Amino acid sequence: MSCIATSVGLGNVWRFPFVAYQNGGGAFLIPYIIVLLLIGKPMYYLECFLGQFSSRNSIRVWALAPAMKGTGYATALVCGYVVSYYVSIVALCLFYLSMSFQETLPWGICQPEWNDCVPSDPNQEVGVVTENATSSAELYFLNTVLQQKDGLEGGLGLPVWHLVVCLAASWIVIFMVVARGVKSSGKAAYFLALFPYVVMIILLISTVILPGAGDGILFFLTPQWDRLISLEVWYAAVTQVFFSLSVCTGAIIMFSSYNGFRQNVYRDSMIVTTLDTFTSLLSGITIFGILGNLAFELQKEVKDVVGSAGTGLAFISYPDAISKTFLPQLFSVLFFLMMTVLGVGSAVALLSTINTVMMDAFPRIRTIFMSAFCCTMGFAVGLIYVTPGGQYVLELVDYFGGTFLLLFCAIAEIMGVVWIYGLENLCEDIEFMLGFKTGFYWRFCWGIIMPVMMIVVFIYAFASYEALKFGGYYYYPTAGYVSGYMMLILGMLFVPLSISLTMYKNRTGNFIQVSYSFNFNIVNNDLCYVI
């Protein structure tokens, strides 16, 4: 349940739709499914196995290939980057949840100062729809909630007070869960994992009956075969699969390490990855159905219906659809409660991973104090994202720290396990633990498909780099790009530094002692390394 709560989260409901929208809807869906089958499922299964077989966290598991231990620290840094802005998304959900108890939903009506506004509430009078018409849900999100600036040239601005309150509340909730320890957080995972599906299915049913929804859904489901040769779409698909499944963050390894040694982790990984795919498709159909309705009302094409929202797409589309339901306040409360639950579930997993690594480094510090320290630091960093320029920073961190670095970590991880520890050793360990041989599909994916595809996509991303643009139009100041590359390089440096340190320690022997193997003793169903 913890793995479901980790993998089925905001990455599916919040991030997947806007990545699909940025990459052409149906043009993105086919590469996403292919990548999920060839990279996502095998990587998830691999991490579940590593955690369960070793009973160790994402750092200590690298006793299998000591030179690659830096990969574990790099993935922990990815967790830090992602959770820093993840909780700001939870704060947005909390704010919308608090606004859902009003007699009239505030994003459903137009304010006098909003020009060319089309109300999302169907009970409001609609004026003349102009070429520059914008939904009230989008204007409310940008002007009232975020108070978003037109750029970063004048600085970030001061934090928006109502978002600061919601950010603090989010971190307090996360602290209350994490401070109880990883095992106890698994109890909360039952609710965190199951409740969202009830709300999502209800929202989907209410969406598909809206006028124009069919056009949006067709835009999402119709393949564009010519885009299959675009490596840009494949890069987006690979990084979204990693983000959606939470692989290469250390979270899956950490949770799996608490399994019994004979737990059928193969079955579990297939269930979780299938549910994850189902959730992404469910949220994608819902979002694009809403976009189809918006296109119908604004008299635009689906691809042009949302302007510069970027990662905020979900906070425009979902509220717009909720305003059109027969009980908008009830649906709004349920939906944003669901989003909050999803966000807390994912944030708890990521922070627990960081907590585990920190507790491993400082074992004398009690869990509650380490959790308090991590949450306080997270809140302090998170204040950046609740400023008027915060969304610009969020997209920058997501691109360099949440996707680019994540792909690098995935390449390092698969090379360390399959090429250094050895594919045959891996398959023999799986047979020992689960009692059945590893099939050709898994061997082929781990040994050839995964490393080759990821390396090709990573090289392409570097070779054909085009400056990141916020909302597809705004170029960041030079300092923004420099900061992004510093985040990326900082994470990447862990791997060569770890290799160099291992070379130094073993300068009279072998460079990488491939003979380090899983020589195990099983005591009380715990696996211990003997090196």
Automatic annotation (TrEMBL):
<feature type="binding site">
    <location>
        <position position="8"/>
    </location>
    <ligand>
        <name>Na(+)</name>
    </ligand>
</feature>
<keyword id="KW-0406">Ion transport</keyword>
<feature type="transmembrane region" description="Helical">
    <location>
        <begin position="71"/>
        <end position="97"/>
    </location>
</feature>
<dbReference type="InterPro" id="IPR037272">
    <property type="entry name" value="SNS_sf"/>
</dbReference>
<feature type="transmembrane region" description="Helical">
    <location>
        <begin position="25"/>
        <end position="50"/>
    </location>
</feature>
<feature type="transmembrane region" description="Helical">
    <location>
        <begin position="191"/>
        <end position="213"/>
    </location>
</feature>
<feature type="transmembrane region" description="Helical">
    <location>
        <begin position="444"/>
        <end position="463"/>
    </location>
</feature>
<dbReference type="GO" id="GO:0005283">
    <property type="term" value="F:amino acid:sodium symporter activity"/>
</dbReference>
<dbReference type="Pfam" id="PF00209">
    <property type="entry name" value="SNF"/>
</dbReference>
<keyword id="KW-1133">Transmembrane helix</keyword>
<keyword id="KW-0812">Transmembrane</keyword>
<comment type="similarity">
    <text>Belongs to the sodium:neurotransmitter symporter (SNF) (TC 2.A.22) family.</text>
</comment>
<keyword id="KW-0813">Transport</keyword>
<protein>
    <recommendedName>
        <fullName>Transporter</fullName>
    </recommendedName>
</protein>
<feature type="transmembrane region" description="Helical">
    <location>
        <begin position="270"/>
        <end position="291"/>
    </location>
</feature>
<feature type="binding site">
    <location>
        <position position="12"/>
    </location>
    <ligand>
        <name>Na(+)</name>
    </ligand>
</feature>
<keyword id="KW-0029">Amino-acid transport</keyword>
<dbReference type="GO" id="GO:0046872">
    <property type="term" value="F:metal ion binding"/>
</dbReference>
<dbReference type="InterPro" id="IPR000175">
    <property type="entry name" value="Na/ntran_symport"/>
</dbReference>
<feature type="binding site">
    <location>
        <position position="244"/>
    </location>
    <ligand>
        <name>Na(+)</name>
    </ligand>
</feature>
<keyword id="KW-0472">Membrane</keyword>
<keyword id="KW-0915">Sodium</keyword>
<dbReference type="GO" id="GO:0005886">
    <property type="term" value="C:plasma membrane"/>
</dbReference>
<dbReference type="GO" id="GO:0089718">
    <property type="term" value="P:amino acid import across plasma membrane"/>
</dbReference>
<keyword id="KW-0325">Glycoprotein</keyword>
<keyword id="KW-0739">Sodium transport</keyword>
<feature type="transmembrane region" description="Helical">
    <location>
        <begin position="233"/>
        <end position="258"/>
    </location>
</feature>
<dbReference type="GO" id="GO:0015179">
    <property type="term" value="F:L-amino acid transmembrane transporter activity"/>
</dbReference>
<comment type="function">
    <text>Unusual broad substrate spectrum amino acid:sodium cotransporter that promotes absorption of the D isomers of essential amino acids. Neutral amino acids are the preferred substrates, especially methionine and phenylalanine.</text>
</comment>
<feature type="transmembrane region" description="Helical">
    <location>
        <begin position="160"/>
        <end position="179"/>
    </location>
</feature>
<feature type="binding site">
    <location>
        <position position="342"/>
    </location>
    <ligand>
        <name>Na(+)</name>
    </ligand>
</feature>
<keyword id="KW-0479">Metal-binding</keyword>
<keyword id="KW-0769">Symport</keyword>
<feature type="transmembrane region" description="Helical">
    <location>
        <begin position="367"/>
        <end position="387"/>
    </location>
</feature>
<feature type="binding site">
    <location>
        <position position="346"/>
    </location>
    <ligand>
        <name>Na(+)</name>
    </ligand>
</feature>
<feature type="transmembrane region" description="Helical">
    <location>
        <begin position="333"/>
        <end position="355"/>
    </location>
</feature>
<feature type="transmembrane region" description="Helical">
    <location>
        <begin position="483"/>
        <end position="504"/>
    </location>
</feature>
<feature type="transmembrane region" description="Helical">
    <location>
        <begin position="399"/>
        <end position="423"/>
    </location>
</feature>
